[in-house]
Specification:
Radius of gyration: 27 Å
Membrane topology: Multi-pass membrane protein
Strand content: 5-15%
Structural class: mainly alpha
Organism: Asparagus officinalis (Garden asparagus)
Largest sheet: 3 strands, antiparallel
Number of helices: 6
Order of helices and strands: HHHHEEEHH
Distance between the termini: 72 Å
Keywords: Membrane, Transmembrane, Transmembrane helix
Pfam family, one: DUF679
Main location: membrane
Strand order of the largest sheet: 1-2-3
Number of strands: 3
């Protein structure tokens, strides 16, 4: 008489990805929501990056050379206007730069476009990933216009002007700074610190 061997019940094991997710939840608990002070510090850091401080510094350094130490004639006036226009355009374009971390671990920079991002220094041998999330948005345009407005209002202020006109750059800077804080950007362009996620 043949004896029946009982079948062992097969134990269903969850897929490895589910095990990884559950283990990660145990090891890395979710981060608590940011406090008010953390939000304020983040907004201040964004503000420091959005204001055209580097452009203004370049203007302050190059103005004595372009104006021949303040003696304005037709030639130096034209050179100063070209300098002002060049730096305003560079401040405008800098608002559309962004960066991302590639699969090779390096950070690459590019210019945001309507379809994604045009990369400056990406190696030809690597396949370009999908960069559609880096598209230009309306906020980018607003930030660019406000940055140029702050730059021009501070740079165009003369030294011999009335006190009322001295308050214009302060007012424009304060208004634009508040708008920068209310409408923050997610771009990490040239000059921004690179975060852990590469954004």
């Amino acid at each position: 008489m043949s004896q029946r061997i009982p079948r062992s019940k097969s134990i269903k094991t969850p897929p490895p990805s589910l095990l990884y997710q559950e283990t990660k939840k145990l090891i890395d608990p979710p981060a608590p929501p940011p406090t008010f002070s953390q939000k304020a510090l983040t907004s201040t850091a964004n503000l420091a990056n959005l204001l055209p401080t580097g452009t203004l510094l370049a203007f302050q350094l190059l103005t004595p050379v372009s104006t021949n130490n303040g003696s304005c004639d037709a030639a130096t006036r034209l050179i100063t206007q070209i300098l002002l226009l060049t730096l305003a355009v560079s401040a405008f374009i800098a608002c559309f730069t962004d960066s991302f971390r590639a699969p090779d671990g390096q950070v690459y920079y590019g210019l945001a476009t309507r379809s994604g991002m045009w990369l400056f220094n990406y190696p030809v041998k690597l396949a370009v990933p999908d960069l559609s999330e880096y598209r230009v948005s309306v906020v980018d345009g607003v930030h660019a216009v406000l940055t140029v407005l702050v730059f021009v209002s501070v740079a165009a202020r003369g030294r011999e002007e009335e006190e009322v006109l001295d308050l214009v750059p302060v007012g424009v800077g304060l208004m634009c700074g508040l708008l920068f804080v209310v409408f923050p950007t997610t771009r990490h362009g040239i000059g921004y610190p690179v975060t852990a996620d590469g954004r």
